[in-house]
Amino acid sequence: xxxxxxxxKVLAVLLVFIxxxxxxxxxxxxxxxxxxxxxxxxxxxxxxxxxxxTIQFYDVSTxxxxxxxxVSYPGGAxxxxxxxxxxxxxxxxxxxxxxxxxxxxDGENGKVTLSIDSPLRKVREDLQMTPGETVVxxxxxxxHLFSSWENGAExxxxxxxxxxxxxxxxxxxxxxxxDYQLTPELMYMNYLRVELKSATRxxxxxxxxLPSLNAxxxxxxxxxxxxxxxxxxxxxxxxxxVYRGYLYTGETAKxxxxxxEVSIKIKGFSISSTSGIRxxxxxxxxxxxxxxxxxxxxxxxxxxxxxxxxxxxxxxxxGVDPGRGRVLIGLYAPxxxxxxxxxxxxxxxxSVSAVPEKLMVGDEVAVYINxxxxxxxxxxxxxxxxxxxxxFELVGNETGWSVGDLDPxxxxxxMVYVLRAATPGEFKISGITATYYMENGERAxxxxxxxxxxxxxxxxxxxxxxxxxxxxxxxxxxxHAENGSSIEVLFNITALGDSPEFQYxxxxxxxxxxxxxxxxxxxxxLGNLKAGENIVKNLQIRTLSEGHFPIKASLTYKDxxxxxxxxxxxxxxxxDTVPPKVIVKKETIHVYPSEEExxxxxxxxxxxxxxxxxxxxxxxxxxxxxxxxxxxxxxxxAVLLAVxxxxxxxxxxxxYQEVQTFRKFLLKKRKSRPGGLPKKWKKDxxxxxxxxIRLEVVRENLPAEGGRPSERKG
Length: 714
Hints:
The protein contains five helices and 45 strands.
C-alpha cells in the first residue's frame, strides 16, 4: 500500500492532509534534467503501476541488505538488485527511461522507500505560437500563449490538479517547471518544463520538455501483494554476482551451484534495423539428479540481470564488442556458488618509434615504446627492457620499466627514453623486449621491430688558400707582386671523414672580403662536398695601389639536415705590392796572399823596403810566437842541485840537533866511579839509554804551553 516515509500510520495520515495544499503545481526558476516521483513506500510483494510499467518490491536478502526490484512491461520483465542508497536503471543507464533509487530499507516493518526519476526529453522543439494559440501536449496537459513582446511572453499551462490556466511571464532564455499530481498524496515533480527561446510582438518560440516515463493519461496505481502481483510465499533465493567481465565467442563459463552446473557460452550476434544488436547465449544446466536443460537466451547489449527459467542463474549484459567477439556480462548465482573461466592467452606486441628519425651527431632522439595487449587474457608481471644501441649515448638512466598487469585489448602509456647520437651512420634501434606471464603461468617474451635512425655529421673542413704572381712559379700565403699586376689565387677545400653518405655539406660558398684597393670575385660557389672529397677553385685578383693587403674569407654551407652554418677563415692571403729599396754602401776589401805566396811576398817586400832590418825584426816578433821552444838543460840541473843542497842542509841540521841532545843527556847520566875512572856501559844499558834519548827528543819537540817547545832546566 502506498504511504509516506513514516512508519506510523496516524502520523502518516496527518502529514498527508498537511502536505496536500503543498502539492499544487509549482513553478521553478531553475531548469531540471529529471522529473521525480517520491516517496514510494512498498511492502514485500507490493507494486505500483505508472504508465505501462509495474514496479514491484520483488525479493530481499535474509539480512535485509539487498533488495530485488522487478520492473514488468508488456515485452517482459527486468530485475534490479539494489542496496540502500543505490540506483538501478531501466532498461540501462545509457538508454534510460527511468531509474529507481532505493532511499531506505525498514527491515523491522518490512518496507522499502523508493524514488523514481525520469530524464526530461524535448517533446516540442522550436514550437512557434502566436498570441491566443493553445497547444495540447496530451489529454491532461496544454500550453497557451496569452501575449508576446520583444524577448518576452505571457504563457499559461494547465495540468492536474489545475482546472484553470496557470499564467506566468518568461524572458528570453528563461524556463519554468511544473509538478503533476498523480495521487492526492504524491506529485510527479518537475514534470513539465517550458522554455522561451525567442519572442517578438507577433509570435513566441518555445521548447517544451516532458519526462520519458509518461503516458496520455498518466496515473499511479497501487497493487498490494496478492492482488495480481506475484506474492512472496516462501523464503526467496538470494543471488549474488559471481562474475563480471568479458565472455568471448568460443569459450564457456561454468557456474557450480548446490543444484548443479550451469554452462554459458555465446551462440551468436544479430543486428536488425528495429532492435539493433542482439546477443544470443546458450545456457545448459546439468542438475545433480542427472537431468539437464539447454536454453537459448537473447538479450540486448545492456540488459539488467534477469532470471533464466529452470536454472539457478541470472544473466546481465553491460556492453558488447562484436568486432572482438566478446560481451561484457554479469553472472548471478545462489550463495556459495563458484564460477570458472578458462585461461586466456595474452598477445602482447611492442612497437617503437623515434623522433626525429634524422639527426646530427650530438643531437638527441626520443625513442617511444608502445606496448599493447591484443589477446583475450591478461599479461601479468609485464616488464619492458630497452638496451642502448651502438652509436648512441643514454641521456638519463632509465632503460627498463615494470608495468605490472596489462588487461586484454589495452595499451600502456608510451614509455620514452632519450639517446644522444655519437657517430654518423645508419642505425637500427631494436632489441626492446617485453617479458610477461600468461594466465596459465607460461612465460612469454616478444621483441620490437627495428626502427631506422640516420645520423649525419659535418665533415672536418680543411681550407688552404695560396697565391702566386705572374713572374714566379711558387705558391705562398704571402705574395709579392707589382702594383696592377694579375695575381692568381687558389682555394683548396678538403672534407675529412670516413662516411661520405652521412658526412657532407651542401650549397657551400666561399665569401672573399677584399681591401678597398684590391678587386676580385667576392663569391666562389663550391656546391656539395662529401667526406673524402676536395674542391679546387682558381681566381684572378688585381691590386690598385701599393701597400700590404690582407684578404679575409669565410665559408657558408648547409649541413645534411639543411641547417645553415658559417665558418670564419680569417686572413687567408696577404698581397705585398710595395717595391724593394736599393741601398749603396762603401766598403774597403783587403786582399791577403795565400800560404804558398806568403814567403815570396815577405822576401820581395824586404828587398824593396828602405828599412829592411826594422821590418825583419817586426816580422820575427810576429813569427817567434809560432816557433817551437828549445829545452834549457842547464836550468834544470841548477834547480835539481839547489833542491839537493836544501835537503842535505836539513839533514845536517837534524843530525846536529840529535848529537847535542845526546851529549846533554849523556852528561846528565854520567856518574863518577870510585877511583875517578869513567863508567863502562854494558850493551843492555846502552839500549835503555838510546830509548831514553829518543823519548827525550820527542819531548823536546812537543809544543809547550804558550805555543813554544818546552825548555829543560839544568
